[in-house]
Design a protein that fits this description.
This protein has 752 residues and is α+β, with helices and mostly antiparallel strands. 35% of the residues lie in helices and 20% in strands.
Length: 752
C-alpha cells in the first residue's frame, strides 16, 4: 500500500498570531500613552481650574462669591477688607499668571522666567526705576489705601499658599513658583498702566530731530496741539441726559481702547460690603472696580494723553556721574541693578539719577534725564474705592481730586439725572516751554512749577444739549493758563459720536452698541473725495486709475473689512503723510507717526499753502498710484478681490501656551479680519482695540450691558477662557447683572 506524505504549513497561522500580538501591544501602548496624556492634562491643566463652588478656609466667615454664567464673581462680605480679600482670591484663581506677568514687566523681572529675549524690556523698566518708585510710594500711601491693598494681597496669597502644587499651567511650563503678593506689587501694576498710557518722550525725540533737519515752521505745523478743537469734553466715553433716552434717565457708555492681550486686561467684578455695592471691570492685581457703576452713579475712564514726561539734556560726565545745574556741579546718585536672566549669568547695570530723574536716553553725545509725573514724591494714591463708593457729583469729584494718574477723562452720570465730565490726574505746570522737545537741564529754566490745581482742570456738569461725548481729543481751551502738550487724538471720532447721538432720541442701552461699533471715518472719506476730485481734474494723466477711482467715488466712508476702498485710502494716507513730513524735514518721512497728523494733513489739503508741494493734485495722484502699486503687491492684481480686512488682520497669542508644539495655536485668537481704524469710533489698529464695552442704564441697572474682549479666565481649559470673544467681535453684549443675579454656583469663605 502506497504511503502518502502529508505536509502542514503553519506559517500563515504563526504570522497572523504574531501580527495580532503586535497590534495588541501597539494598541496597549497607545492606550497607555493616551491615558498618560489625559492624566498629565488633568493634573497640570484641568486640576488647577478655578474653584467656583464649595468652601474655602479664610481668616473670617460669612463671605461668599457667587458666579454667574460668564464666570463673574458677585462678592458679598461683612466688611470692606473681607470683600477685598475675596476679590484678591477669586481674581488670582483666574488671572494669577497674568498678575505675575504684569508685576514682573513693571519691575523688570521678565528675563528671570522668560530668558534673554526680555532683557531689553527689563533694562527699560530698571532705567525707569519702576520698582523703586513703587517701594517709595508704599511709604507715603494714605493708611486707608494701604489697608485696601493689604487686604487684597492677603486674598491673593491665600490662593498661592493653598495651591502651591496646583497652580495654572504656565507656572509648570516655565518651571517656577510665584512669590507672595504684596502691596508694592499692586502699586507696580498701577505703574504698568501709568507707563502704558503716558509714554510720550519718543514724540519729543522725533520732533527734535525733525526740527534739527528741517523747516521749523513746517515741522511745528505737523505737530499741532489742537487746543479746544473738540465740541465737548470726554474721551472714548459718553453720557446722555434723560431728555434723550427712552427711560428719562441718563445712559453712560465706555469702551476703553487698549492693546490686545490674552487674557484681556479687565476682570469683571461685583462687590458688596457695608457702604459699597459696585459692579464693573477691575484691573487684575488691584482692589476695587476701575470702571462701572454703584447704586447711584456710573462712570467711565479713558486716557487724557496729556504729556507728563519731559526729557532734560544734561551736561553729564559718564565717568563720575557729575552734571551741571545752575552753574554748580551736582552728583548724580548711582543705583545698581541686577537682572536675573534664565539660562545665563545675571546682568548688572548702573542707573544714574539726577535731580530731573534717571538718565534714561542716550542719543549721540546727548545724555537725557527723564522726568515723569508718576515718580514725583508723594504722588501715588489710590482713590478708586472712594470713587466706587461715591453717591453724587460732589463725592465723585472729591475722590478724583486725589487721583494721581495716568491723566484721565472721567465721564459721569447719576440716578438724579445729572451728567458730567472732569479731567483728573497730576499734570505738570511748565514755565517757558511746552514740553514737546527735550530741553536744557543745566540752566534750571525748565523745571516744573508743581502740578496744575484740580480746580483748574477741564470739567463740565449738565452741559447744554444733554450730551457729553468725545474720544481722546484735546479738551483744554485755547486760553488755558498753562502750556499744553500731548499726543491727543484728532477730533473726528468725537464729532462722529456726538453726531450719531444727536441724530435721534429715545436711546436705550442696547442701542448704544451701534455707536460703539461704528466704523465711519470722516477723515478717510474726506481724503477719498480729494483723490477723486484730483483725478477728475487730471483725467488724461493716468487712465489706468479709472477702476480704482470708480471704487472710491461710490465709497461711503465705512472702514469695513470686506471692502477695498478703505484699504486703498489707508495706504494713500500713509504716502501723503510721508510726503508732508519729507517736505518739512527730508529723510523724516517714515518716522513721522503722530496722533494729530490727520489734523495737520487735513488743514494742509484744504488750504493748500505754498511751499509744501509743487502741485497738490499731482501729489494726491502720486500717493494714489503708489497705494495701488502697494495694494497689488500685497493682495494681487485683481482689485475686486482686495479687502481691507486682509490688510487689518489681528492675532492674539497666548504668551506661553502658544509656544507648545502642535496644540498651542488652538488657544490663540485669530488671525481674523477687522473693521475700523484709528479714526473711527470703534478705534481698531493692529495693536489696539476696544478692551471692553459698558452701556449703563441709570433707569434700571439690570438693563445695563457689559462685556470684555475675550473672557474672564486666563486658564486655557476654563469655559470662560474666550467665551466672550465672538460677542465682542460682532458688538453684541451681555446683561450686567446687578440687583438680580442668576447664580450658577457659589464659593463660600468660612472661618478656619
Amino acid at each position: 500500500m502506497a504511503q502518502h506524505s502529508v505536509s502542514l504549513d503553519l506559517r500563515p497561522q504563526i504570522t497572523h498570531s504574531v501580527a495580532g500580538r503586535i497590534v495588541r501591544y501597539v494598541n496597549i501602548a497607545i492606550g497607555i500613552a493616551l491615558a498618560a496624556a489625559l492624566v498629565t492634562v488633568y493634573w497640570y491643566a484641568w486640576r488647577p481650574l478655578p474653584q467656583r463652588s464649595g468652601r474655602v478656609e479664610a481668616p473670617f466667615g460669612g463671605a461668599a462669591a457667587s458666579f454667574d454664567a460668564l464666570g463673574v464673581p458677585h462678592i458679598r462680605a461683612a466688611s470692606l477688607e473681607d470683600a477685598l480679600f475675596v476679590q484678591g482670591y477669586v481674581t488670582a484663581q483666574d488671572r494669577l499668571f497674568q498678575m505675575d506677568g504684569l508685576r514682573r514687566m513693571a519691575a523688570g523681572d521678565l528675563a528671570e522666567i522668560l530668558g534673554p529675549t526680555y532683557l531689553e524690556s527689563d533694562r527699560d523698566a530698571r532705567r525707569l526705576r519702576m520698582r523703586r518708585i513703587a517701594e517709595a510710594a508704599y511709604s507715603t500711601l494714605p493708611a486707608a489705601d494701604r489697608a485696601a491693598f493689604a487686604a487684597y494681597a492677603r486674598g491673593v496669597n491665600r490662593f498661592i499658599d493653598t495651591h502651591g502644587n496646583n497652580l495654572p499651567l504656565e507656572f509648570t511650563l516655565l518651571g517656577y513658583q510665584p512669590r507672595p503678593w504684596s502691596v508694592v506689587d499692586s502699586l507696580l501694576v498701577c505703574l504698568y498702566m501709568y507707563r502704558d498710557l503716558t509714554t510720550t518722550w519718543r514724540d519729543e525725540i522725533l520732533k527734535r530731530d525733525m526740527l534739527a533737519n528741517g523747516d521749523r515752521q513746517k515741522v511745528e505745523f505737523l505737530f499741532p496741539v489742537d487746543a479746544g478743537a473738540g465740541p465737548q469734553p470726554g474721551s472714548n466715553a459718553w453720557a446722555i441726559a434723560g431728555s434723550r433716552t427712552a427711560s428719562g434717565k441718563p445712559l453712560l457708555s465706555s469702551d476703553m481702547h487698549l492693546a490686545y492681550s490674552l487674557p484681556g486686561i479687565w476682570y469683571m467684578t461685583h462687590i458688596q460690603a457695608p457702604g459699597l455695592d459696585v459692579s464693573g471691570v477691575a484691573l487684575p492685581g488691584t482692589p476695587g472696580v476701575m470702571v462701572g457703576h454703584n447704586q447711584r452713579i456710573a462712570w467711565g475712564i479713558t486716557n487724557l494723553q496729556f504729556g507728563v514726561q519731559d526729557l532734560y539734556i544734561e551736561q553729564f560726565d559718564d565717568r563720575t556721574g557729575r552734571y551741571s545745574y545752575r552753574g554748580q556741579v551736582e552728583q548724580a546718585r548711582p543705583e545698581r541693578e541686577i537682572i536675573r536672566v534664565k539660562g545665563q549669568p545675571a546682568y548688572e547695570m548702573v542707573v544714574w539719577v539726577t535731580r530731573h530723574g534717571p538718565l534714561y536716553v542716550t542719543d549721540g553725545n546727548d545724555r537725557m534725564a527723564l522726568r515723569w509725573a508718576a515718580a514725583e514724591p508723594g504722588i501715588m494714591q489710590y482713590p478708586i474705592l472712594d470713587i466706587d463708593r461715591a453717591q453724587d457729583w460732589r463725592q465723585f469729584t472729591a475722590a478724583l481730586a486725589r487721583f494721581p494718574g495716568p491723566g484721565s477723562n472721567f465721564v459721569y452720570a447719576d440716578t438724579d439725572g445729572n451728567i458730567g465730565y472732569h479731567v483728573a490726574g497730576k499734570l505738570p505746570k511748565r514755565r517757558g516751554y511746552k514740553g514737546d522737545v527735550p530741553v536744557d537741564g543745566s540752566s534750571g529754566d525748565f523745571d516744573w512749577d508743581g502740578m496744575i490745581p484740580f480746580e483748574q482742570l477741564p470739567a463740565a456738569f449738565n452741559p447744554p444739549g444733554g450730551i457729553v461725548a468725545s474720544a481722546n481729543q484735546n479738551t483744554f481751551p485755547v486760553d488755558y493758563p498753562y502750556p499744553i502738550t500731548g499726543n491727543f487724538a484728532a477730533p473726528g471720532r468725537a464729532r462722529q459720536i456726538r453726531d450719531l447721538i444727536a441724530a435721534r432720541g429715545k436711546w436705550r442701552a442696547e442701542d448704544l452698541l451701534a455707536v460703539q461699533k461704528d466704523v465711519y471715518s470722516g477723515f478717510n472719506k474726506f481724503l477719498a473725495t480729494l483723490l477723486v476730485a484730483a483725478y477728475d481734474r487730471r483725467r488724461a494723466g493716468n487712465p489706468a486709475l479709472d477702476q480704482v477711482v470708480a471704487l472710491l467715488r461710490t465709497w461711503n466712508g465705512q472702514m469695513a473689512k470686506d471692502r477695498a476702498a478703505p484699504f486703498l485710502v489707508t495706504l494713500a494716507y500713509q504716502y501723503l503723510r510721508t510726503a508732508a513730513a519729507e517736505s518739512a524735514a527730508p529723510t523724516s518721512g517714515p518716522r513721522y507717526q503722530f496722533a494729530l497728523a490727520p489734523v495737520a494733513l487735513e488743514i494742509l489739503l484744504r488750504e493748500r499753502p505754498a511751499g509744501w508741494f509743487l502741485d497738490y493734485d499731482e501729489t494726491l495722484l502720486r500717493a494714489l498710484a503708489d497705494a495701488v502699486e502697494e495694494a497689488r503687491r500685497m493682495q494681487g492684481p485683481d482689485l475686486t478681490r482686495w479687502q481691507y480686512g486682509a490688510y487689518l488682520r489681528i492675532a492674539v497669542d497666548n504668551p506661553v501656551i502658544h509656544q507648545v508644539p502642535l496644540v498651542g495655536k488652538y488657544f490663540d485668537i485669530g488671525p481674523v479680519p477687522m473693521s475700523g481704524a484709528s479714526s473711527t469710533v470703534k478705534q481698531t489698529t493692529r495693536t489696539l482695540a476696544p478692551s471692553m464695552r459698558m452701556d449703563a442704564d441709570l433707569g434700571d441697572w439690570d438693563r445695563s450691558l457689559l462685556n470684555v474682549q475675550i473672557g474672564q479666565s486666563g486658564q486655557i481649559f476654563s469655559s470662560h477662557y474666550k467665551d466672550q470673544w465672538w460677542a465682542w467681535y460682532y458688538a453684541r453684549s451681555f446683561p450686567m447683572q446687578y440687583r438680580h443675579v442668576e447664580v450658577k454656583s457659589t464659593l463660600e469663605f468660612v472661618a478656619k
